[in-house]
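Let us work through a complete example step by step.
Step 1: write down the sequence.
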Amino acid sequence: MTSSAETATPYAPGARIEVRDAEWMVRTCTPTPRDGFKITAVGVSEFVRDEDAVFFTEIDDVVQLRPEDTQLVADTSSAFARSRLYLESVLRRTPLPQSERGLALADRFLLDPLLYQQRPAELALNGLRPRILLADVVGLGKTLEIGLILAELIRRGRGERILVVTPQQVLEQFQHELWTRFAIPLVRLDSVGIERIQRDIPAGRNPFLYYKRVIISVDTLKNQGRYGQHLENMHWDAVVIDESHNLINEGNLRNKLARLLARRTDALLLASATPHNGDAKSFAELIGLLDPAAIADPKRYSASDIDHLYIRRTKISDEVRDRIRGRWPDRGPSISLRTPATPREEAIFAELAEVWLPGPDRTGGSVVDADRRLFPYTLAKAFLSSHVALGTTVAKRLKNATEAREIEALNNLAFLVEQMGDHDSAKLKALVDELKNIGVKAKGTMRAVVFSESIPTLEWLARTVPAELGLAADQVQIMHGGFSDQRQQEIVEAFSLADSKVRLLFTGDVASEGVNLHRQCHHMIHYDLPWSLIRIEQRNGRIDRYGQEHEPQFRAIVLTSETEGALDDTTVAEKLLRREEEAHRSIGTAEAVTREFTAKKEEDRLIKDLLKGKSVEESLAEAPPVDFMAELFGAVEQGEARAEVRRARVPKLFGSTEEFVREALRTVCPSLRVDDDGGLLAFAPPSDLIHRLSALPTSYLRTHKITERMKVTFDHDLAKRKLDEARRTKTMWPDIAYLSDLHPMVEWLVDKVQVQLVRRQAPVITAKVDEPTFLVQGIYSNALGQPTVVDWMAISGLPGAPVVRDMTEVLTEAGVGPAMINTSRTPDVEGLTPLIEPAIHAARRHLDEQRDRHDDEVARPLREYDGQLELWERESLKSLDGTSHGAKKRGQVTDTVADQKRLLQSLETTGEPLLRILAVLEGDA
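Step 2: predict the structure and record it as tokens.
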């Protein structure tokens, strides 16, 4: 119950106040030396909703709103439409309570209802705070999983301010998915978006205050000079960091950024298909962003320490396999296209074998010193990419080489490269032949993506291949990390559109993380192969992912040599290609084969083993034994749930969002001309609705003339068809939007409905009831303003013998719906008004009983975490005994415990309840 400390101030947490002609909910109220009481509050009424504010009672006129002062009014609208819409708007606008952990919106969006994609939302909502690491392997749909979590947070009033941080090449892709699938608009702050900020908002203004939901690249955001101060002063409801494995190295700017954001947000969602680098301590640091008290000893912990923070599945996981059967074709085999080296290529193989690469008969020792013993493999890999790449590598080294023997050897290589023409490249001919075999041609529809590690190779292929296939310049694209974020996004979009002229994409490994290339393509060719199973898997995942309609086809151009001791593609690359395929089919991922867990570590270890004279097979066979990290992740993956995902109880008056929207348009927007063919609504959006769409790309709004004529639909099949059609046009963005519960138009109508009723008024509705029945909303909140107890009450038997029942049940029994007839009879306001006070007293008593019942449900996880926190503190302090930095680390442990204790306290139910009379049902007698 409310403590004396909570009632010591005139405005208790949870109290409603009116300040500056707006309604607010009090979060805290503390005395000040000169300005009366300082009130921190959050906006409740339509124009200030979810805005934070601070008021001082000696400066502002603060009026406490009492439910007993409610004025009852008549509703003269047809079928009591205004009252019904108002009740529905309150039900929709009220956040679900902290104790409601079921999914409320899982089936309301433009995506297939796959249980495995709903699991992460279930996990996030079960936690103390929504903080998890989504680590599904490539292709399972992590973006959709993130969208589902964000949608649930928004429905709970915990997703007003959202920051999404991604690699720059997937900014638009991520923004597109969240809008077209979930109707969640994000402002994209790429180079074009930043120019827009500079144009639209005053200099020095915090852009994150101006835009509430933002998507930005990690490389842009880590600019401390531009954004550091702004981020320090922000608090987010939810932060999403995609490809979060890039945060692991302590001390780098990305890591510092992540630690700052983790402190400044309630929900934190990290996503990565390769979430760790094999180092327990580094991974513990990543987990510490989610829960700083989850792991006591960063060198040793168990799956049970992190299973509430982490979820990982592969394509062969039971639940995934069961749900995607028939929706996602199995990948085809990885086929090696062997091509014998030409005479000029054999000359280079011979030079590398005889002069550069280690061997038993090497005369005169190595060309390079011990510090550069890996460089010969750099040359060999460059040549296996192309003679052009080798020439570039040699030229760069010549600028810095100082030893006469190395310079001479480099010049010899340069001479051999100069002797080669395009016609001397066996791989080039093999690539052209295979592309022709696939059917890539000027007047065809087939597409292919060609990967290479080398930018010089990519640029050379883009110059030479199109003419061999008869492709025009606009039918070929090249992409690598040297391109701007805007250019990379444009290239990915062009390749994904069905009516785009692009038939061939040459790309570097900038596209191997997160980029979707599967929409119109199912052929991939590795022109050269990374010496890393993880990188090969990441490349393949660009076309082998959920939503692919054809069997993904993989080819690798494999250059063979007759030269003794030559390091050709059969020596390393082809063997890795086979091993990745075997791992994918047997265990669903290749990362566990070498147990190095990062592409760079895999390649570095392999080259070192080759230097020692080992073969690829020996190197893979001698992978480190199954270690702590492998056991840890195996345990997490095996813990996959199979039960149905729990659903939330969401009270509603209207049968569907469609019914609510149509009724609202008729009732509160009577002058708005809406063309309605039964499936599609089209109209000229008013200026206040246009403003809500300003977060979307201007190119999308301009192309489809959204601000002139807006088209929306509730028809799932139509929306899906239009989304598919959009991929065959000049924009990925469909001209018809699916009206989910979160769509700005739905929120606009909810606000329009609520504006219709004057504050502190409640309508009287004539319904099938035997006695006056007061409909009352009751809410208890925590110190953060998040509801912990929400009750919808229908109170009859007034004044002497009050009976409290569930509001939605009573509304159904009373026939409150579109079939009602409003005879415009004058309600008995004079007789009903004296019943307001006893109705509020009855509601307060009932809500207090509900609080006592819900307190255990709310407090139980808090108590459990408090116990874990004490255990963590003891174990952490014990692990520091005898260490050199014990005093400093002990202080950090103490600070962490104090911070987490404050968090627990802020999540407890506190303060006064909100009680609000929504309406009164009166019999027609």
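Step 3: interpret the result. Confidence is low (pLDDT under 50) at residues 1-8, 635-641.
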